[in-house]
C-alpha cells in the first residue's frame, strides 16, 4: 500500500526538529471611534480563534485601540514561526513549547510576551468505537509532528497507561510535509493541524479512506465534538490536565527585534492592550451572555458549543483567564512541566550540556520571556465598554 504515514516507533526522539495612542475617557462606541481614527493594520497568526480573540474581534476592542487585525490561520508550526521570524506575522499565539524548542534548541530570536492559556480543552479524543486509552494499543495515532509538545504530552499520558511508542505499543500518523524531506519515497498522506485532524476523526478516516483512531484535541474542538451526531461523535478519552498540571500553553510570541523597534512595539502593545481588555471582559461573570454570543459568532457554532467553549476558556486551571494575576503572566510551574515533558522524550537534543533552564526561564530583557511590553500594554488601556446589546 502507498500509505503515506510514516509509522513511527523508537526513532521519534532522534528528530530534534521543529516547529500612543492617548487615553480616551469615558465609554465610547467602537464604530464612532474608528471612523474618527485611521486604523493601523496588524497581522496576527494563530492556531485557533481563542475566546479572548473572539471577544476582542466581535465586540470592538481592536477598533477601540485603533487596530485593523488580520487573523492569519497558522497551517503548521514550522510555517507559522517562520512567518513570525521573517515579518509575515507581527505577533502570534502558539503553544509555549514551540517557543521553548525554537529558542533553546535553535537559538531563534523569539520572545514570549505573556501567557494566554493553560491548554483549555486539551484532550485525547477517539472514534466512537474506542472507549478507553488502553484500546489504543496497536493503533496509529494522528499527530501534527512527532517532536511537538502535543505529541510529547500524548506519549506521556499513554505511558502512564503502560503504552510506549518506543516499545511499538502504538505508532504515529504524521504529516506528509513533516517527513517528505526525510523519507521522500514512501509518504503520501497528510495529517495536519487540529482543524484537519478534527475533521478526519469525525469522518473516521482520512480523505483517501485510511482509518483513523485517535488524536489530540485543543480548544474549541472538544466542545465542538459535543454537537456531532452520536454515531460519529468523538469520545473524549482523557483530559490532559488530569495528568499534567499546571501546564502553560498558548503564549503571545513576537520577534525579539520588535521590542526595540518603536513602531512595531507600539503596534504590538496596542494589540496586547486590546487582548488584555477582552480577556478581562471574558473573566467578568456579568459579561457571560455577550461573551458566549461573541464566541458563537466568531466560530460559527451553536450556543451550546459556545457555552461549553466559554466554560473551558474560564477554567481556573487551564483557561484563558487562569494566568497568575489574570494579566498574561506565564505560569512558572506550567512552563517547568512543559520543559519536563519535552526533556523526558529527548526533545532538547540540540541544547548544549549544562544548559541552565531555571535561569533561561526567568523573565527579562533578551530572555525567552520579556514582560516589558505587557507591562506597557497594561499602562496604556483606553476606557472602552462594548455595547450591552449582544
Ligand atoms: C480624562 O479625564 C481626566 C480626569 O477627569 C482628565 O484630567 C483628562 O484630561 C481626560 N482626558 C481626556 C483625553 O479627555
Ligand atoms: C484591514 O486590513 C485588510 C487586509 O490588509 C484590508 O483589506 C482592509 O481594507 C483593512 N480595513 C480597514 C478598515 O482598514
Ligand atoms: C506548512 O504550511 C505551508 C503553507 O501552507 C506548506 O507549504 C508546508 O508544506 C507545510 N509544512 C509542514 C511541515 O506541514
Ligand atoms: C456556519 O455554519 C453553518 C451551519 O453549520 C453553515 O451552513 C454556514 O455556511 C457557516 N457559515 C460560515 C460563514 O462559515
Ligand atoms: C501581574 O500578576 C503578577 C502575578 O500576580 C504580579 O506579580 C504582577 O505584578 C502583575 N503585573 C502587572 C503589570 O499587573
From TrEMBL:
SUPFAM superfamilies: Periplasmic binding protein-like II. The keyword Signal applies. Keywords: Signal. This is SsuA/THI5-like domain-containing protein. Its main location: periplasm. It is found in: Periplasm. Belongs to the bacterial solute-binding protein SsuA/TauA family. Residues 1-23 form the signal peptide. InterPro entries: SsuA/THI5. The keyword Membrane does not apply. PANTHER family: ALIPHATIC SULFONATES-BINDING PROTEIN-RELATED, TAURINE-BINDING PERIPLASMIC PROTEIN.
Amino acid at each position: 500500500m502507498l500509505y503515506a504515514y510514516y509509522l513511527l516507533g523508537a526513532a521519534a526522539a532522534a528528530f530534534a526538529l521543529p516547529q500612543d495612542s492617548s487615553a480616551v475617557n469615558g465609554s465610547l462606541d467602537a464604530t464612532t471611534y474608528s471612523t474618527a481614527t485611521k486604523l493601523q493594520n496588524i497581522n496576527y497568526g494563530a492556531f485557533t480563534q481563542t475566546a479572548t480573540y473572539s471577544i476582542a474581534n466581535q465586540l470592538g476592542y481592536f477598533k477601540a485601540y485603533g487596530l485593523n487585525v488580520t487573523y492569519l490561520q497558522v497551517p503548521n508550526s514550522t510555517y507559522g514561526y517562520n512567518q513570525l521570524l521573517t515579518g509575515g506575522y507581527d505577533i502570534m499565539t502558539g503553544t509555549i513549547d514551540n517557543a521553548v524548542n525554537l529558542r533553546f534548541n535553535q537559538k531563534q530570536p523569539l520572545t514570549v510576551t505573556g501567557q494566554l492559556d493553560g491548554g483549555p480543552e486539551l484532550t485525547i479524543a477517539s472514534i466512537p468505537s474506542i472507549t478507553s486509552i488502553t484500546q489504543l494499543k496497536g493503533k496509529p495515532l494522528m499527530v501534527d509532528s512527532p517532536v511537538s509538545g502535543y505529541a510529547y504530552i500524548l506519549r506521556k499520558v499513554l505511558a502512564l497507561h503502560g503504552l510506549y511508542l518506543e516499545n511499538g505499543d502504538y505508532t504515529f500518523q504524521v504529516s506528509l510535509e513533516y517527513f517528505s524531506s526525510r523519507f521522500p519515497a514512501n509518504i503520501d498522506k497528510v495529517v495536519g493541524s487540529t482543524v484537519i485532524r478534527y475533521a478526519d476523526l469525525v469522518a473516521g478516516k482520512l480523505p483517501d479512506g485510511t482509518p483513523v483512531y485517535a488524536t489530540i484535541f485543543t480548544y474549541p474542538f472538544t466542545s465542538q465534538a459535543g454537537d456531532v451526531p452520536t454515531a460519529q461523535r468523538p469520545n473524549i478519552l482523557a483530559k490532559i490536565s488530569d495528568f499534567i498540571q499546571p501546564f502553560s500553553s498558548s503564549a503571545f510570541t513576537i520577534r525579539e527585534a520588535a521590542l526595540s523597534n518603536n513602531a512595531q512595539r507600539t503596534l504590538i502593545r496596542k494589540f496586547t492592550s486590546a487582548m488584555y481588555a477582552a480577556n478581562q471582559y471574558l473573566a467578568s461573570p456579568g459579561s457571560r451572555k455577550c461573551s458566549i454570543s461573541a464566541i458563537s459568532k466568531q466560530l460559527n457554532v451553536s450556543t451550546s458549543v459556545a457555552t461549553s467553549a466559554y466554560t473551558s476558556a474560564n477554567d481556573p486551571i487551564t483557561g484563558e483567564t487562569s494566568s497568575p494575576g489574570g494579566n498574561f503572566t506565564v505560569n512558572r510551574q506550567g512552563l517547568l512541566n512543559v520543559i519536563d515533558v519535552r526533556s523526558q522524550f529527548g526533545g532538547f537534543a540540540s541544547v548544549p550540556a549544562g544548559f541552565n533552564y531555571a535561569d533561561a526561564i526567568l523573565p527579562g530583557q533578551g530572555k525567552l520571556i520579556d514582560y516589558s511590553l505587557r507591562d506597557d500594554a497594561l499602562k496604556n488601556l483606553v476606557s472602552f465598554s462594548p455595547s450591552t446589546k449582544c
